[in-house]
Design brief:
Blueprint lengths: L4 E2 L20 H14 L4 E3 L9 E5 L11 H8 L2 E23 L2 E19 L5 E7 H14 L10 H15 L9 E2 L7
Parallel strand pairs: 1-7
Antiparallel strand pairs: 2-3, 3-4, 4-5, 5-6
Length: 195
């Protein structure tokens, strides 16, 4: 089932997610619905707060990035096959140089800005089997994980841009809050009149 994506301004996007246990109600259906929702919106990641749940879970499928002709073959192959569910994640370390990449967000449609992030992360998390693992990721995969991880920490990519850029996009963010935008996917807006 395709779920509505929560738009910028909703308080749920600012809450720090809580950990869940293996007996979380209908977890397998929730994960399936999140993937369906993400694919419907042509996203590469989706965090539970973006569908209204303040839990520490996000999903990623970087295959769309593999179509970038500027990438080396091994990078393309890695992006093409990277699909993962992250539950109760905790980034342990971020390292390397910071690099800029133009980011967007399904909760903030039609707003894209360059965001600086570290190139390498170490993250502890569980998949659906709830077996704890620690892995290191780099490059675009690390960036997508950092972006989605921020969501479960109540942080949005717009928090990481300069004051000047925030001022320049202020009206667009207000329009999203009020539902005065048109997205190609189902959304739920915080201050939409007549809802």
């Amino acid at each position: 089932m395709i779920l509505p994506i929560i738009g910028y301004g909703d308080p749920v996007l600012r809450k720090v997610g809580v950990e869940i246990s293996p007996d979380y109600p209908n977890l397998d259906i929730l994960i399936e619905n999140m993937y369906a929702t993400m694919y419907n919106a042509y996203g590469v990641g989706l965090a539970a707060p973006q569908i209204g749940l303040s839990i520490r879970m996000f999903i990623i499928d970087t295959e769309p990035f593999s179509e970038n002709d500027d990438l080396k073959t091994d990078e393309k192959n890695q992006l093409k096959s990277f699909k993962k569910t992250f539950i109760n994640a905790k980034i342990i370390k971020e390292e390397g140089n910071e690099w800029a990449f133009n980011e967007g967000c399904l909760s903030i449609p039609d707003v894209r800005e360059d965001v600086f992030r570290k190139e390498k992360i170490t993250i502890e998390y569980c998949e659906e089997d709830f077996v704890r693992k620690t892995e290191v990721f780099e490059g675009l995969i690390a960036r997508v994980i950092q972006h989605e991880y921020d969501h479960i920490e109540g942080i949005l990519f717009t928090d990481k841009i300069s004051s000047l850029k925030k001022t320049l996009i202020k009206k667009r963010l207000q329009n999203i809050m009020e539902g005065k935008i048109r997205a190609d996917y189902k959304m739920k807006f915080f201050n939409k009149k007549g809802r």
